[in-house]
Amino acid sequence: QMAGRSGRRGFDLRGNIVFAGVRKDKIQRLLNSELPTLSGNLLLTSSFGLRMLIKHASIRTQQEADVMEQSRKVESFVDKIEDTVKGLLQEWRTDKGIAVNEERSLALAAMSPKERADHILSVRQEAMRHINSRDLASALVDVPEASRKPLLMEIVDERAAKLKQAVDLAVQDTGFAAAAVKKLGEIKALAEVETPAMVAERERIRDIRDHNAKACARVLKTPLFTPTGSLMATQYAHSFRFACEYMQREGLLDAVAAPRDTACIIAALFNAEPANFAAVNLLRSRLLEKICQRWVEKSDGSQEPVPDKTELSVMEHLISIFCHFFARVQLPAWHAEYAAANSSKLGGSQVVLGELDPQVKEVIDVHVKSAIASAVEYWRGYAVAFAAELGEDNTLPVSGAAWPSSGAQQVCPPLAALSVETKLRSRFVAISGRGDASGDYGSIRELCETLRSNMFLDPRMIPAFELKAPLNAYVLDFWRNHNYKAILKSNKISENHAWGFLKHFALQVRGVFKSLDRRSKYAPYKRGIHGEGRNLETVFSDPQVNLALDQLTKDFGDKFTMIAKEQDHH
């Protein structure tokens, strides 16, 4: 009733629902769907904080929006130039047997486009030997118009008509890019003019930003529950600050806490928190590119198949990985034991999800350790700074009984000697010998559950994802066997939850694909020029990753939609 299902709240014990003009298959889904859980939820999570920052960063004047739009046009022209000169450089280096010096390439990348253009014009082929295609494309825009074609012709065999056409195309696109850069400068200059209309627009946007900032501040200062009393508002605000600082350290936010592209992917997958952080860390590691690679593109444009890689095997590998992220249903020990002992009775169902790919697991583990270390460092500093407000940590966690404070005479010196000196961890827990170093915490949950008294920290306030086992393989079994009833019977997923669980998985996989698909339109894939892991500020979508995710999204989506059709038919 309180969820608005039926009846009058506070008056009726039950009510009737009449479906008018609703398709039969939708009625079936509504009747079998999972009932909402009416329970208290933590409002401030890492994803929620990130979404607040994205909303704040999206508030801009029309002049600022015009500058962003023109900047995208410039980038699109540079992308076209890069696609062309990439082929020219590869052809030239292959023909001459030139090996790229990575240090020299990084040195060229560190220059500004204007500095790089002047340097290329001074040393010519010496720089062209090692420069990557993106840096060359951006530098060409700053090369004088008369020098562009002669510069590129130095790496092209004049007898190759196809390559000469490519040079002409690159020169043409460079002219368009230079015109777009000039237009961008005009727009920026116009945006700086102080007209009454522009002043009014800036004041309007400033008021909106101030209002948005005040709304965010109210969320942080007014927690919906206060397990630590009046200090909860302060801890709430520091939780938000820690999440922001950590995401800045990880390259998800820039120096002024504005979101980068990877942060937007996390926000798009907020329903899967904290698995959204795991998904983005997998993308940033570039490991997904190796998993999805079914062929190697050769310099002549042909494709050499990768042994033992098929469309089906790649999809199964991806599903087994995403099951650990987006289909996390814990499997009771008795169920895992039964499945192991009675595999012949399961009708082809695996039931127990296998171990996560070791390389993927390593990526997740490294990130979790980094998050724990950062959280311990930050919150230990908080405990020291607010020591007076937090009070003495001399209360037992369950009974609430207190022992003498640190200034009083010790009741049991031998017992006190066992305790490790801690600032963040509970003194009661420290009796076991566990200290405050980041290595003393085995998991994020352990950190949150063993804090000193008067401190509260929820795992969802830490932007990281921890693996758990064993998990139910219901999604993998459904995809392999396409048998909805089998996951109800063998995997013991209740009918009230099964459809919702499968729908959630389908939506999250689709969300990953759509996020990368949108990125590929604004930032086409550039291999090897944007770093890896935490040095990767932008996720550039590999075409083979896009293709594999598109195939998986469609394949799983088709099988999922068949559930309603089959139930409607029966």
Give the proportion of residues in helices.
55-70%
Radius of gyration: 29 Å
Distance between the termini: 31 Å
Q: Tell me about the biggest sheet?
A: 2 strands, antiparallel
Instruction: List low-pLDDT spans.
Output: 524-539
Return the average pLDDT rounded to an integer.
83
Strand content: under 5%
Description:
This protein is mainly alpha-helical and 570 residues long. It is built from 25 helices and two strands. Strands 1-2 form a two-stranded antiparallel ribbon. Strand 1 and strand 2 form a beta hairpin. It starts with 23 loop residues before the first helix and ends with a helix.
Chart the SSEs and their pairings.
Layout: H1 24-32, H2 46-57, H3 62-96, H4 102-109, H5 113-123, H6 125-128, H7 133-140, H8 145-153, H9 161-191, H10 196-221, H11 232-249, H12 261-268, H13 275-284, H14 287-292, E1 295-297, E2 303-305, H15 311-326, H16 333-341, H17 358-385, H18 387-390, H19 413-418, H20 427-430, H21 444-449, H22 474-481, H23 484-489, H24 495-522, H25 543-569
Antiparallel strand pairs: 1-2
